[in-house]
Structure formats: structure tokens, C-alpha cells
Amino acid sequence: MSLNARKVQDKTANDSGEEYVAKTELHHLITHELIKSQYVKDNVSVRARSKPLAKTLLAQKLVDRLYEAYSSKPSKSFGSFNGNTEENRSQVYVRSYFIDKKTDFKSFSLEMADALASESKRSSASSGGHVFIAQFTHSSKDYLLVAVINDEYAIALNEEEDKGDELEEVGFLNLKGLRFAGQLNVTAWKNNEGRYLSFLKGTGDVADYFKRFLACDSSISNLSDTQSLTKVIEDFANSVKIDGAPLSDKQRDAFFKKVDEYCREMADSSLELHLEEFSNVVWPLNPDALKSALAQSEEPISDGFVPHKKGLLGLVKFSGKSQHWSLSFDREAIAEGNIQLLEDNSIKLSGVPSHLIDSLRRETSES
Description:
By secondary structure, this protein is of the alpha+beta class. It has helices at residues 57-71, 90-98, 105-120, 186-190, 205-213, 222-239, 249-268, 275-282, 287-295, 331-335, 354-366; strands at 7-8, 20-21, 25-35, 45-47, 76-81, 129-138, 141-149, 151-157, 167-173, 180-185, 197-200, 216-217, 241-242, 245-246, 317-321, 326-330, 339-341, 347-349.
């Protein structure tokens, strides 16, 4: 039974006996140590772990939270393997493990960690940390996730007053601060689908570091990304609520207009659209909600695409034509009743300019 459906119970880890519902089906998890100081390119090494981590409840929770943390990041680039197997060996290791079945998970993970270390030598922005490599299934799709996670420390209250200091420093894995991570949709890759690779965009050298490691060709399709963005915006407007109530027609149209104006301004200036900034500008009431919707788009949206005006059609303006006529109107025309779709699939126009009415009358009377 898939862990997507079944419940995992571990009373040793959870004294209350509460059941934990896993969000992924964990197959393998391992971590190796990447030893490197940031802004230093030399002296990079990997301290290998002797075996994969046991599939305990905590391991399951870690993978679930790691997948959620990665999926919730809107600033990702998507692509596919670049085919350059001489320079980018990770794609060779992936094929050897998943397709040819020539290596076990531990050996495969060490090959990937060494490949990451090699790319880290070329990047001053990269840093060391725990290299987590997880193989799992989510929603009937197989994934491989590679992430570099650092330790963080916090001050905790020691409630056992008779055991020394009342305050103590505790360490934890900083999943929220995830900066270096990439993911392979194994199922999509095997099915020859496009854009099965992704990595956190970051800026400059940060993005190039993981892009090279994953051997990712992240060529952007401005039109398809704009169309995917428009689809998410429409779905978001139909589901989001303000003070517990759905958006009114006026609020929805104003939101669409704001998105349209923002995207057209970027298109006119050939500027890249970055999803975090976009969300903050067009939906300041709760930008995190929009960021989440964009990050979980059914069709992946690459951060940094230049909006394509053709992909915005239907957001504010509607248009169509046949051999003998063309028609274009905006949402306000629908809201004000000037455009009506009748049951026989014909369109009724109101508020037609008088000069057009006069011309039509002359034409029809003469005929």
C-alpha cells in the first residue's frame, strides 16, 4: 500500500500514539557531508556515509518536509538533461541507477555527491553542508531530490530546573533556509516528457552551480510559461477568499487587470518576471498564498521568463476572428452586459457605436 494513503504509527517517537499520515512513499534516503567554505573554491571534499538512513518515522517526516519545502519555493528553473555526458556526469549516473540498474543506491548517491563536489569547486557562492539524497514517490510519480542542508542553532528552554542551565542551545536542520536543491521527476523523464528537471533559481552563480550539477538545459518558453501563469491566476482568483468570502466580480476583474498591466509592462521592456516579486506586487494581501499556487502549478513555471502578450489573452481581453469578421473586447464589457453569450452560442452586442449601426442599416437596406 502506498504511503500516500496509509498511516504510519510509531509510538516510540510519538508517546501520544497519534498516527502520522505520510505525504510521500520513501524508498531511500542518505546524507553525505560536503566539506567546503563559502567563497573558497579549493579544498572541497566529501565525507561519505557508510549506509543509507533507516526508514524510520523521523526519516519519513524529514523527506515529507523537505519535499514540501522544495515544492513551496516559486523561484525554480525547469528543463531537461543537456546531453553533454562528458562534462556533466550526473545524467550518466542517473541512467545507470534508474534505467540500467548497474549500481545500488549507496554507490549512486556517492557518485552524485562527488559530482556535486566537483561543481562546487567551480562556484565561490556554494557552501558545504549535509547533502541529502532522497528517492521517493508522490502522487504515483517517482522523484529524486538532492539538497544541501545546513545546521542551525536556537536557544531552547530547559524545563528540568534541577539539571543545570535553564536555557540550552539546540541544533536543527534548517529546511526553511533551503538554497541549494534540485529535483528529477523520474517518471516524467522515463516517459520522455519535457521539463522533468528543476532546481532552485537563486541568483547568478548560485543558480549555475546546481544547473551544471544536474546537467540541466533550462531553456525557457516565454509563451508557455505566460500561459501557465495565466491559468494559475484564473484558478487562484476563483478559489481565494478575502475575510472568508470569495472575490466579487469587481475584485476579480481588478486583480486580473493588475496582473495584465504588470505582465505587459515587463513584456514591453523585455524584462524577466520573477515570481516572488510578482506575487508581492499583484497580491499584497497575502503574497505567500499566490507564491504557493504558482509553485504548485500543474504546468511548471520557470522563474525569470519574459511575459508573452499572446499568453495573456483571456485574462483581461478576449478576441477572435473568422474569414469575414474579427471581434475583441475586455472583461468590463462582459461585466457591464455589453457582451452576452446566448444559449444558441451566438453573441449579443450592446452599446454598439452609432456610426457602426448607421453603416449596417444602410448596407442591409440597400441589399
